[in-house]
Amino acid sequence: MLRQFAAWALILAWGLVLPGTAGAASGLVHAKNFQADARTATKRRVPVMVLFSSPTCPYCERVKNEYLVPMHLDPAYRSRVIFREVTIDSDATLTDFGGTPITESAFAAAHKVFMVPTVMVFDTQGRATGDPIVGLLIPDFYFGYLEAAIDEGGRKVRGK
Known about the structure:
Blueprint: H1 2-26, H2 34-44, E1 48-53, H3 58-73, H4 75-78, E2 82-87, E3 93-95, E4 101-103, H5 104-110, E5 118-122, E6 133-134, H6 139-157
Parallel strand pairs: 1-2
Antiparallel strand pairs: 1-5, 3-4, 5-6
């Protein structure tokens, strides 16, 4: 009886752990080292798309869950762009494109990001490849805005 109870407890615990693990794997990758991302982007000849967000922003969650996470999980997009997320009010440290340690909030401020959600596309040198996409804009057209930003970033990275 004790063994059976232990087995059920283990199964229940395993079931509680899996959703958290699956959720982390299906979300956007939080930015840690843009210099390393730039090296990868250079090898793959793709831009880096960054979502600047805040945990209290419902529009950020919508942009992330309805647009960017599905794109990130789609192999067709993963071969065209690297996706990252930066929290604009975070004191967590990341490495910028030049290799300098900086807080996420300072990185956002350096790129003049003060409203969320903001999506920017960067080339392999850390230069913005076009205008930022600020806010959710028109949801029906938002996917098209993201697609156009990825295309423009790809052209600039490949020198076309």
